Amino acid sequence: MKPDWDKLGKHYADSDSVLIVDVDCTAAGQGVCQKMGVKGYPTIKYFMAGDKKGKDYQGGRDFASLKGFAEKTLNKASCNAVTKNGCKANEVAFIEKHEGKSVDEIKAEVVSKAEELAALKKEKREAEKAYKEQEKEYKRKELLLTKASAILKQMEKHAGKKTEL
């Protein structure tokens, strides 16, 4: 598999969207492998944008299979802020809005966006927590109403039998 893996790495060497990496789990990479849950060798993991844990690759280990998977799953055009290749119209507009700014101004924008993102994530967590609490309450009420309905149906059935006597 190693020759095909190396060939894949060379094929995507200049890619903006695919990065092929080896980690030797028996040497210096042991910590990384443990953190990623690698138990057997060779293990192939792939990561999508924002995915820190990765997913296990289950396909073929030959070059054609590896390249086919990479093309279908990973080789998605990503926005290159320098060349604007692969950028959508809104991304180009964002880049153009910030072109010409100094390094310090760009750094300040990075900090600002990081703060906005952190605040949004916090707000999202709080909303998810509130939703879970409300969902729990709805489930509790639903269970109580289901039990009450079942009891009333039993009583109705029993009352119907009493009037027949």
UniProtKB/TrEMBL annotation:
A GO cellular component entry from the record: endoplasmic reticulum
Residue ranges of coiled coil: 103-144
Swiss-Prot/TrEMBL keywords: Coiled coil, Signal
Tree of life domain: Eukaryota
Keyword Coiled coil among UniProt keywords: yes
Residue span(s) of domain Thioredoxin: 1-70
Organism: Tetraselmis chuii
GO biological process: protein folding
Entry annotated with the keyword Signal: yes
GO molecular function: protein disulfide isomerase activity
This protein's name: Thioredoxin domain-containing protein
Stored SUPFAM superfamilies: Thioredoxin-like
Family: Belongs to the protein disulfide isomerase family.
